[in-house]
């Protein structure tokens, strides 16, 4: 049965977020601000009572910190989810790290409603390919894909700070298309969000940005803005030059000048940020390198293309990850 706009906005939580970290919590706040009810799927056995978000500082209000916003949320623990628990979820938004997506969704697919729609919102690429194979067994399900350049940081387990505005691009992946009311709700709730008919091209463009900025900031231990220095520009160009033929082999047309402009724009706009990979390395956490430069290297191998710099960078980050 197709949910009505009223169901989507008013009913008991039929939207769930899996991966209630920085981005997951931000999306929860943004949906809740539009009166949607959101269920949290968390591995924290005590579950949160409330989530709190410190909003973005208005550029004109430099002297005061904006008030935090707190909302209450029902939650379920991911380790013991039953089909009965999951029966109400019609839209599952997955905001885990890329390397957690497939392992978390694989056991869940058989328990979700037959017509549940899944939206992936992570950096890097690859999980959608594994999921396309798994979803072949669930013909009424559908997958949407997305990427966001909003910034969010965890202040504590259930408290985040909204650290940056940025474009969010969403689009159809495969299987059943997302219900129009959910699509409208997402686009209304997430600032600067857009539906892309060709989401795979958008994901490759974001992948190119992450391939350049994330590992270089982790290797050089610097903020994103430091990559504007002339000594990094050749490396960035070389990474993009290696990536373009790989994207082309997948039917995605990218151009060097356009990508360079996008990368340098993000370097400029997020100059004060420490990239997620820099932070993962600094805090001795696994990185998403396998789904970023690793994805490019792996696809290149499949097409008989050479990407020596991506390969070398993959090795450097793996060796940084191994240092404890
Ligand atoms: N933060 C940012 O500003 C941006 C992030 N991104 C991308 O968004 C994605 C998410 O990033 P971010 O929110 O920062 O990452 P976080 O690590 O903050 O969030 C990931 C969440 O997944 C949860 N999780 C992991 N395993 C399980 C499990 N078995 N059961 C339930 N929950 C689980 C983690 O739980 P736990 O809390 O218990 O660890 C955590 O809350 C990444 O791909 C990132 O690159 C993109 C743009 C900006
Ligand atoms: C866009 C960028 C590089 C912002 O820091 C990012 O996505 C990340 O850090 O993972």
UniProtKB/TrEMBL annotation:
Protein EC: 1.1.1.169
Domain Ketopantoate reductase N-terminal: 15-172
Keyword NADP: yes
GO biological-process terms attached to the record: pantothenate biosynthetic process
Gene3D superfamilies: N-(1-d-carboxylethyl)-l-norvaline Dehydrogenase, domain 2, NAD(P)-binding Rossmann-like Domain
One MF annotation (Gene Ontology) recorded for this entry: NADP binding
GO cellular component terms given for this protein: cytoplasm
Family listed: Belongs to the ketopantoate reductase family.
NADP in keyword set: yes
Enzymatic reactions: (R)-pantoate + NADP(+) = 2-dehydropantoate + NADPH + H(+)
The entry's keywords: NADP, Oxidoreductase, Pantothenate biosynthesis
Protein name: 2-dehydropantoate 2-reductase
Pathway: Cofactor biosynthesis; (R)-pantothenate biosynthesis; (R)-pantoate from 3-methyl-2-oxobutanoate: step 2/2
All residue ranges annotated as the Ketopantoate reductase C-terminal domain in the record: 198-320
């Amino acid at each position: 049965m197709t949910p009505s706009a009223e169901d989507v906005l008013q009913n008991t939580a039929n939207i769930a977020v899996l991966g209630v970290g920085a981005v997951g919590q931000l999306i929860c706040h943004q949906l809740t601000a539009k009166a949607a009810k959101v269920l949290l799927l968390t591995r924290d056995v005590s579950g949160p009572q409330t989530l709190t978000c410190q909003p973005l500082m208005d550029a004109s209000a430099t002297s005061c910190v904006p008030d935090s916003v707190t909302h209450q949320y029902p939650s379920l623990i991911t380790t013991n989810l039953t089909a009965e628990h999951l029966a109400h979820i019609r839209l599952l938004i997955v905001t885990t790290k890329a390397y957690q997506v497939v392992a978390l969704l694989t056991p869940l697919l058989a328990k979700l409603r037959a017509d549940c729609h899944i939206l992936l919102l992570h950096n890097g690429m690859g999980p959608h390919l594994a999921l396309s194979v798994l979803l072949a067994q669930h013909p009424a399900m559908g997958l949407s894909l997305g990427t966001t350049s909003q910034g969010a940081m965890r202040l504590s387990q259930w408290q985040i700070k909204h650290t940056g505005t940025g474009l969010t691009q969403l689009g159809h992946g495969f299987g059943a298309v997302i219900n129009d009311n959910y699509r409208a709700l997402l686009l209304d709730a997430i600032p600067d969000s857009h539906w892309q008919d060709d989401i795979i091209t958008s994901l490759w463009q974001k992948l190119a940005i992450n391939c350049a900025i994330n590992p270089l900031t982790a290797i050089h231990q610097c903020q994103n803005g430091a990559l504007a220095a002339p000594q990094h520009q050749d490396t960035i160009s070389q990474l993009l030059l290696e990536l373009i033929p790989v994207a082309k082999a997948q039917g995605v047309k990218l151009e060097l000048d356009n990508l360079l402009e996008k990368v340098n724009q993000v370097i400029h706009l997020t100059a004060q940020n420490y990239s997620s990979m820099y932070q993962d390395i600094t805090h001795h956490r696994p990185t998403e390198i396998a789904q970023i430069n690793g994805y490019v290297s792996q696809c290149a191998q499949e097409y008989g293309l050479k990407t020596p710099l991506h390969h070398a960078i993959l090795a450097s980050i793996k060796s940084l990850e191994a240092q404890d």
